[in-house]
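Collaboration report, partner site 2.

Our partner group contributed sequences for two proteins of shared interest, and the home lab folded both. The records are reproduced in the order in which they were received, starting with the first partner submission.
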Amino acid sequence: MFGLHYKLERKAIGLVLGIVIVSSIGGLVEIAPLFTIHQTVENAPDMRVYTPLELSGRNIYIREGCYACHSQMIRTLRDEVERYGPYSLAVESKYDHPMLWGSKRTGPDLARIGGKYSDEWHVAHLNNPRDVMSVSVMPAYAWLSRTALRTDDMGLQLKAQRAVGVPYTDDMIANAAADTYGQAAPDTPFAEGVTKRYGAATNVRAFDGKPGDLTEMDALVAYLQILGRLTDAAYKPVAEAK
């Protein structure tokens, strides 16, 4: 084996051909499954897209590096399922660009954090993690409550998502800015448009506890509260979910 390798190193063309062959095999192993992706990914007729507010929260989550300490993928191991809930399905991340599965957990997995805690808990935790968990090493994000959320570019963000396959409609894109505000303002006429476009089960409330003020805290909490709840496919029998 080593003798063959030494001989190849002395022949440039042979070495290049060897690299091409090995790379082709590796590429085939990675690319071939993509041709059957529709047969391997579960069907989820109830799957919905992120609202503009939730998408903004996801962008903040990425911006602040939350993915570096929190994974969003529950493995099929018994201890993980018992601690976090049903293991993650591929379909649950079909609208995630980029995906945030992660491989490191300084903090717990967040794949099913949605609805587990109240909005007030999330706000307190983000303002100062030590207030709800004394041993936490997570930094505080108190400025999110004081930072107004930008909404004027939400239509462009939804367009970018649609370009990579997320089925946002023209109506959703045209009303992106209004829906961003409306989801955090339940007592305004804008709230009705959110449930009309994204479903009656959509969370519509002042996530940061301050009605009338649209902040980055609203967006991040709205995103955390929808994690694991875009579809209930993981809670159905396997045969039914396919």
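Second partner submission, folded after the first:
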Amino acid sequence: MGSQVSAEALNTKLPEMKGNPPPECPMHNKDAKEKNELKTKPSECPVQHDNNINPYNMMPPANQQPAPDQPFPLPTNRQVSTIPRAMPDGSTEFWVYPSQQMFWNAMLRKGWRWKDDEIKEKDMEDIIKIHNANNEQAWQEVLKWEALHAKECGHPRLKSFGGKATDYSPRARFRSWLGYELPFDRHDWIVDRCGKDVRYIIDYYDGGEVDNKYQFALLDVRPAVDSLENVWDRMRVMYMRYRYEIIGDKKQNKLTN
């Protein structure tokens, strides 16, 4: 669901890849019991609309057909995530990750030319794994914030998302003025909190080498400052983090003295 994994990020991790991979469909693991209670089903991502653009992820219809000059076949199977998706009719479906073939076609559409790189089948497999892990990580961070509202809504759902790689958030710009690096990508996610739309901003920073879980991004996830409730949530979390650090330091000092 982006989230999108930006071209810069993938070029850093897979030097032979160049281009602009497509937006991703976020993922979150929930237990089977909750799935059954929601009575949901997979939802295609992206989905075709009359204008050929899906307003929920700003992507055209899925293209599973091999490109004319493609050097090797790519799998078309898609992994169904367990992140609930809020539908216009109030029902819940699940976001579905793009296949390797969809990724390939999307990169071509963005201007990437595989002949300029030494692309291998294993590279596409790794990209999908990085893509999926990155989304799962982002959704887990969103759920930490949503836990503040667990009593009013026990099953938040992702409604829509979009990438804004070059539209840096105010916090990212401020950090850059202090000498820190700018994020390589940004997403805005709209979460349906039981009928209430809540916007989240996610800044993605390069965290170094890809680990054994195919994660490399450091995420800065927080509610957007566009409502008093979001501002209050951020103040609460800031206080809790500060209090935890102070208490943790005191306990550590007692143990070492």
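Feedback sent to the partner group on the second submission included the following. The first helix runs from residue 7 to 13. The chain has a mean pLDDT of 77.
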